[in-house]
Specification:
heterodimer, A: 414 residues, alpha/beta, Alkaline Phosphatase, subunit A, nine-stranded mixed sheet, B: 683 residues, mainly alpha, two-stranded antiparallel sheet, 37 helices, 6 strands
C-alpha cells in the first residue's frame, strides 16, 4: 500500500521542519522494519456539541468578506497560524501546528450535513444517525460501521466505546458498545480492582433478567468490568510530552489513550466536547472561543503524542452539528449557521492540506444569504474513513440513502 | 401501585396500604390539589436553607456576583455596612484584585502585540477571558468554587453598558500600561499579600480547635489575608472541620466567603432532592420537576446562578398544575429564561437603540427620510437580533421541532420579543419591557399578521402558540412520556391533546384525562419506564426511609451519574428516555450507590436497618433468618416485587455468604442488592 514510501517522504519533509517530536513508528517504518500481519484499525470520532464556529477555527484570512462581516470577532491576519496562504488556524490551535507540519493533520472546510435544520438537537441527531432529514433511523452510523468488520474471538466489549456516562446516539444500535465515564469507577463496590463479591450477584441478576434492555447492557457491563480488570489500564500513564489539559475533554482523551494502549481491542471510540454555542461575546484571539479551542487542541495533541506508535493505525475525525452565521450578530456572537470545518488526524492521513472546495463568502455565495455554503457532505468524509481505513466497504448500510462513491472521496487517506 | 410508582418519586414503606385505605381515586384527586396537603414536615427540613426564601434582590446583595463586585471596586456601589456581608465582600474583592492583576498582565501582553487596540476592545477581551472560565467550569456541576467565584459572567460588560453611563469597565480601566519591565505596584502588593498569606495559613490551621461560636467570631475578625486563606481551604467542598457545630446561618456565611453563588445553587439542589424524598405533595413535585426541565435553564450560565431560585419558586411551582399559557408567559418574562436564552440582549435592527431616534417628518406629505441602514455599532452595546429564545420557544417550549415553522418564523418571533429584557440583572432586577430596543413594524408569525403594539406583540404570539394544536399535542406527548412510557399510545396522547385544547391548556385537566385513561392502567405500561438517575436516587431514599442529614453529597452523586440538578446545559433539558440512562457506567453507578446507601457508606445519609426490615413498625417482629429478611425486603423496597431470577440470585449469594464467615448476609447487603436489581431501575 505504499505506506513505507509515503512515510519516508514525509520524514524527509520532517528533516526540514525538524521541530516536533516524530512518532517512532514513522522512523521505524522509514527504516523498513517489518510490520505485523494484521493490526487493529481504529476510528475515533469527536463531536463538538453546540455548533462550533468553523470560520473562526480555520480562518479564511485571505477573504476580505470574512473581515467585513465580523468587525469585532474576526481573527486578525497577523494572529492566525497561516497554513497555505489562504487559510490559517486560530492561534489557540497552536498545538495542531506540528501535526500539520508532520502531515498527520488534514482539514476539510465547508463540510457538514446538507440538512437545512438549525436546531442543535435535530442536527446532532442527524449527524449521529448518519441520515440527515430522516427521523426514523433508530441507530447511529458509528455503530453500524462495526458490522462486517472482523471481530476478535471472543469479541472485546471495548470494540466500541464512548467516553461519558451514557451511550450517545452515534453508537447506539445492534452492535455492543460500552459507555465509560471513569476507568477507576468502572467496577462494583470498590476502586481499582478491589471488586466486591456482590458483583457476581448483580451479574447473575442482570445475566438472567428477562428485561431485554437491562439484560444486554448488564451483560456487556460485566464482561467489560472483568476485561478491564485484567488489562489493568492504570499501568498505562500518559507518555512523556502528552500533557492533557485538566477538564472533561482532556480526561476523556487521556482515558481513551489508556484503553487503547491497554490493548483492549478498541476499534471505534467516541468522545464529545461542549461549550461552542457562542451567541454572545464569542471573542476572537482571546475569549470564549479561544478557551474552548485551547482545551480542544491541547487534548487532541496530547492524545496523539500519547498514542505513539499506535497512532499509525488510528484516524481521528472531528465534527459539529452545523456552523455559525458568517456575520456576527448584535451581541458580538454568532447564530446558528450551516457548513463547518472538520479535522482529520492520523497515521494514514495525507495531512498538511485543506481539502474540499471553498465556496466563498460573497453575499451571493452564502447559503440562504447568511451562512457558509456546504461543498462536502460529512458522510463523504466519514465514508472514506470507514471504507478505506476501517475496511468496511458496505457504505450503503452505514449511510443509508446516501450514495457514497469511492471515486469521489477526497482521498485524504494515503 | 401503578399510581404510586408513577405519580411520585417512588413508594415508601406503608404507602401502598395508605393509598388503598384512602382509595386510589381520592388519593389521585388529592395529589392534583396539593394546596390541600400539609407539608410542614418537609418545610422544617428546608428551614436551614435560607436562600430558598430570599428574593433575587436579597440574594444578589448577600451573595455578591462578580458584576456587583465590579461596581463596588469602581466606587459605583458602596460596601455593605453589615459586618458579616462585609467580610464576604472583602474576601471576594481581594481575590478579584489578584485575578485582575493576572488578567491585566495578559491584557498588556496582548496589547503590546496589537498596538491598534482600543481600551474598550481590550476590556471586552478581558471580560471574555473571565467569562470563558465559567463555561469551562460549567462541567464541574455547580459545586465548584472556581466556577462561580471567577466569573464575571456573560452579562457583565453588556449590562454595565446598559445600566451605567460611560463608566469604563473596571478591568480595562485599571489595566497596567503595556509591557511592564519590572514589578508594578500591583505586583508588589500581590507579592506582599502572598507573604501575608503564609502567616494567614498558620492562623487558619488553628481554627478547628476553637468552639463553634468563638471560631465564627474569630474568622469574621481576622484580617482579610487570613480570611482569603480560610476561604481557600473550603474550596471544592473541603474544610468541613471549620464548619462543625455552626448554625446554618453561620455555615452559609463562611461558605459564601469561598463561593457566594455556590451557596445559592447548592441550597437549591439540596432542596430539590429533599422535596423529592420528603414532600407529601408528590405529584406537585413531579410536575415542578417536569416543567423546570421542559423550560430548562442551565444554572451555571453566569447570573442564572442567582436567578434560578426564584425561577422555580415564583415562576414554575405556582403554575405547575395551572394553565399552560400562564406558565409560558411567566417563563418568557422570567429573568432566568431571558438571561439563559439571551433574549435580554436582543435588539431590533431598526429600533431606537440600534439606529437612534426616528427622524422628523420630511416634506409636505410627512414622508420620512429613506429608512436608515442599521449601523454597525462601535461600542459594546448589543445592537442586533438574537434568535436564541425565538427558536427554542418554537422548537422546545411549544410547537416542537416538526411543528411546521420556518427560519423566517424564528426571525420574526425574535423581532416580536425584542425589548423583553431585564432591569439590572446583576442586582437581581425584574423583567422590563424596553420600547427603545423593540423592532418597529408589524411581524408575520406562522401566517398571522402581528400588528405593531410593543409588549403586546409578545403576548399575542404566546397566546397563538399556547393554543396551537401542535403545542397541545407536543405537551401531551411529553407528559405521557413522563408518566407512561417512552413511546406512549397515540390514542392516549390524542385524548390528552383534546382535553388540552378544550380546557384552554389546563394542565390539571390534562393530567386527569391521563390518569383516567385505560392506557395508564394497562399491563403493557407496567414498569415501562427506566428511572432517570434523579428518580433512582430519590426512590431509593424513599424506599429505605433514609434520613438525609446533608443532601449535598447526594447532589454530587447525581452529577457523577450524569445528571447534575439544574445542570442540563442544552435548552432541551434532560432526556426522559431509557436509552439515555441505560449504559455500563450508569448501571455500575447505580449498583455502587445502592450498596453504599444501605451499607451506611453514603455521606450525609442514615439508613436504619430496623426500618428496612420492617421491625421498626410496632407489632412487627424482626425477621428471624436471611430468607425471611429477603422476602420482607422484597416487599418493602421494590414496589411490585422482584423477578424469580433476581430472587434466586440473591438467595445464592445469601447461601454463599452463610457458608463463609467473612460476609454474613445482613439487611444492608440484601437491601443493596435489591436496590441495584433490574426491577428497581424501572417504575
Amino acid at each position: 500500500m505504499g505506506i513505507t514510501r509515503r512515510i519516508f517522504l514525509r520524514n524527509s519533509a520532517l528533516t526540514v521542519v525538524g521541530t516536533a517530536a516524530v512518532p517512532s513508528f514513522l522512523a521505524r517504518a522509514a527504516w523498513g522494519a517489518a510490520e505485523p500481519a494484521t493490526r487493529t484499525k481504529r476510528l475515533v470520532v469527536i463531536f463538538q456539541r453546540g455548533a462550533a464556529d468553523g470560520l473562526n477555527i480555520v480562518v479564511p484570512h485571505a477573504e476580505p468578506q470574512y473581515y467585513a462581516m465580523r468587525p469585532s470577532i474576526s481573527i486578525p491576519r497577523k494572529d492566525v497560524i497561516d497554513l497555505d496562504g489562504f487559510f490559517g488556524l486560530h492561534p489557540s490551535l497552536a498545538p495542531f501546528k506540528p501535526l500539520w507540519q508532520q502531515r498527520q493533520l488534514a482539514i476539510v472546510h465547508a463540510a457538514g450535513s446538507p440538512d437545512p435544520n438549525r436546531s442543535h438537537f435535530d442536527a446532532q441527531d442527524f449527524m449521529e444517525s448518519g441520515t440527515p432529514g430522516m427521523k426514523a433511523t433508530d441507530d447511529g452510523w458509528l455503530n453500524r460501521s462495526l458490522r462486517n468488520l472482523q471481530h476478535g474471538s471472543p469479541r472485546s466489549p471495548f470494540e466500541a466505546i464512548s467516553m461519558g456516562p451514557s451511550i450517545p446516539r452515534i453508537l447506539s444500535g445492534l452492535e455492543p458498545a460500552v459507555a465509560l465515564n471513569s476507568i477507576n469507577d468502572f467496577t462494583v463496590g470498590g476502586h481499582n480492582g478491589k471488586a466486591s463479591p456482590l458483583a457476581s450477584t448483580f451479574e447473575a441478576m442482570y445475566g438472567h433478567s428477562l428485561d431485554t434492555v437491562l439484560h444486554s447492557t448488564g451483560e456487556e457491563t460485566f464482561d467489560a468490568v472483568k476485561m478491564l480488570k485484567s488489562a489493568d489500564p492504570a499501568k498505562y500513564q500518559p507518555a512523556p510530552g502528552a500533557d492533557y489539559p485538566r477538564g472533561r475533554f482532556g480526561d476523556s482523551m487521556r482515558q481513551l489513550a489508556q484503553l487503547i494502549k491497554a490493548n483492549l481491542g478498541v476499534q471505534v471510540a467516541f468522545a464529545d466536547v461542549g461549550g461552542w454555542d457562542h451567541h454572545v461575546n464569542e471573542g476572537a484571539t482571546q475569549g470564549q472561543i479561544a478557551t474552548v479551542l485551547r482545551d480542544f487542541s491541547q487534548s487532541l495533541a496530547a492524545f496523539w503524542t500519547d498514542l505513539g506508535d499506535l497512532g499509525e493505525d488510528t484516524v481521528v475525525v472531528t465534527m459539529s452539528e452545523f456552523g455559525r452565521t458568517a456575520r456576527e450578530n448584535g451581541n458580538r456572537g454568532t447564530d446558528h449557521g450551516h457548513a463547518n470545518v472538520m479535522f482529520v488526524l492520523g497515521g494514514p492521513v495525507k495531512g498538511g492540506k485543506v481539502y474540499g472546495r471553498w465556496p466563498g463568502l460573497d453575499q451571493s455565495q452564502l447559503y440562504e444569504g447568511r451562512d457558509l455554503a456546504l461543498t462536502t457532505d460529512f458522510r463523504q468524509v466519514l465514508g472514506e474513513a470507514v471504507a478505506r481505513h476501517m475496511g468496511n466497504k458496505n457504505l450503503s448500510e452505514v449511510f443509508p440513502g446516501y450514495e457514497n462513491q469511492p471515486g469521489k472521496f477526497l482521498r485524504y487517506l494515503g | 401501585m401503578q399510581a404510586l410508582n408513577r405519580l411520585t418519586f417512588g413508594a415508601r414503606v406503608g404507602d401502598v396500604q395508605q393509598v388503598m385505605a384512602m382509595g386510589v381515586e381520592k388519593w389521585i384527586d388529592l395529589q392534583l390539589h396539593p394546596e390541600k396537603i400539609d407539608d410542614s414536615a418537609l418545610n422544617s427540613r428546608l428551614a436551614p436553607l435560607a436562600t430558598l426564601r430570599m428574593s433575587t434582590k436579597e440574594i444578589a446583595e448577600d451573595f455578591p456576583n462578580p458584576q456587583l463586585l465590579n461596581q463596588v471596586m469602581n466606587g459605583r456601589r458602596s460596601m455593605p455596612s453589615d459586618p458579616i456581608r462585609r467580610a464576604i465582600y472583602k474576601v471576594q474583592l481581594a481575590r478579584f484584585q489578584d485575578r485582575k492583576n493576572e488578567a491585566g498582565k495578559n491584557a498588556s501582553i496582548v496589547a503590546a502585540d496589537r498596538p491598534g487596540n482600543t481600551a474598550s476592545e481590550r476590556s471586552a477581551m478581558t471580560a471574555n477571558t473571565a467569562q470563558e472560565s465559567a463555561g469551562a467550569n460549567a462541567q464541574n456541576t455547580g459545586m465548584t468554587a472556581a466556577a462561580s467565584d471567577t466569573t464575571p459572567s456573560a452579562g457583565i460588560d453588556a449590562s454595565a453598558d446598559m445600566n451605567a453611563s460611560g463608566n469604563e469597565n473596571m478591568m480595562a480601566a485599571s489595566a497596567p500600561p503595556a509591557a511592564p519591565v519590572k514589578m508594578t505596584p500591583e505586583e508588589e502588593a500581590q507579592a506582599r499579600r502572598r507573604e501575608d498569606q503564609l502567616y494567614a495559613d498558620l492562623e487558619v490551621q488553628q481554627l478547628p480547635s476553637l468552639p463553634p461560636d468563638q471560631r465564627f467570631k474569630k474568622i469574621l475578625d481576622m484580617p482579610t489575608a487570613s480570611q482569603v486563606a480560610f476561604a481557600e481551604s473550603l474550596r471544592g467542598g473541603k474544610g468541613l472541620a471549620f464548619l462543625e457545630g455552626l448554625s446554618p446561618k453561620q455555615r452559609e456565611t463562611l461558605l459564601a466567603m469561598n463561593n457566594p453563588l455556590g451557596v445559592v445553587t447548592n441550597e437549591l439542589a439540596q432542596a430539590k432532592l429533599l422535596r423529592a424524598v420528603y414532600s407529601q405533595r408528590q405529584l406537585d413535585e413531579v410536575m415542578t420537576d417536569f416543567w423546570v426541565n421542559h423550560f430548562n435553564v442551565f444554572i451555571d450560565k453566569g447570573l442564572d446562578r442567582l436567578l434560578v431560585t426564584s425561577y422555580e419558586r415564583d415562576v414554575i411551582r405556582p403554575r405547575a398544575l395551572g394553565k399552560f399559557e400562564d406558565l409560558l408567559v411567566a417563563t418568557a418574562k422570567s429573568p432566568a429564561m431571558l438571561f439563559y436564552l439571551d433574549n435580554w440582549l436582543s435588539v431590533g435592527p431598526n429600533s431606537v437603540r440600534a439606529v437612534g431616534p426616528p427622524p422628523r417628518p420630511y416634506g409636505r406629505y410627512g414622508r420620512r427620510y429613506p429608512p436608515q441602514q442599521p449601523q454597525r455599532n462601535q461600542g459594546r452595546r448589543p445592537s442586533g437580533l438574537n434568535e436564541n429564545y425565538g427558536r427554542e420557544l418554537l422548537e422546545l417550549h411549544t410547537l416542537s421541532v416538526n411543528g411546521g415553522y420556518s427560519q423566517r418564523d424564528v426571525t420574526e418571533v425574535a423581532k416580536v420579543f425584542t425589548g423583553w429584557t431585564i432591569d439590572k440583572p446583576a442586582e437581581g432586577g425584574e423583567f422590563k419591557y424596553e420600547p427603545r430596543m423593540h423592532e418597529p413594524g408589524s411581524k408575520l408569525v406562522l401566517g398571522h399578521r402581528i400588528k405593531s403594539k410593543g409588549e403586546g406583540e409578545g403576548l399575542e404570539v404566546l397566546h397563538l402558540l399556547a393554543t396551537n394544536p401542535q403545542t397541545a399535542h407536543f405537551i401531551s406527548l411529553k407528559l405521557a412520556e413522563r408518566f407512561v412510557s417512552d413511546n406512549p399510545p397515540p390514542a392516549l396522547v390524542d385524548r390528552m391533546a383534546k382535553t388540552f385544547l378544550n380546557k384552554k391548556g389546563d394542565i390539571r385537566e390534562v393530567l386527569s384525562t391521563l390518569f383516567h385513561s385505560p392506557e395508564f392502567w394497562d399491563d403493557g405500561t407496567y414498569r415501562a419506564k427506566v428511572k432517570t438517575p434523579f428518580e433512582f436516587v430519590a426512590s431509593a431514599l424513599r424506599a429505605t426511609g433514609a434520613e438525609v442529614e446533608d443532601a449535598l453529597p447526594l447532589t454530587r452523586q447525581l452529577a457523577n451519574m450524569g445528571m447534575p440538578l439544574y445542570g442540563a446545559q442544552p435548552p432541551s433539558g434532560y432526556s426522559m428516555k431509557a436509552e439515555t440512562w441505560v449504559s455500563s457506567s450508569a448501571l455500575l453507578n447505580r449498583m455502587n450507590f445502592a450498596l453504599a446507601l444501605t451499607g451506611g457508606k453514603m455521606r450525609g445519609v442514615k439508613v436504619d436497618a430496623a426500618h428496612l426490615d420492617g421491625s421498626a413498625v410496632a407489632g412487627n417482629p424482626a425477621p428471624t433468618g436471611a430468607s425471611e429478611t429477603l422476602s420482607t425486603l422484597e416487599g418493602e423496597l421494590v414496589a411490585g416485587g422482584v423477578s424469580q431470577q433476581t430472587h434466586d440470585s440473591i438467595v445464592t449469594q445469601v447461601q454463599t455468604s452463610e457458608k463463609s464467615s467473612a460476609h454474613s448476609p445482613d439487611v444492608s447487603m440484601i437491601g443493596g442488592l435489591l436496590l441495584g436489581s433490574p426491577e428497581f431501575q424501572r417504575r
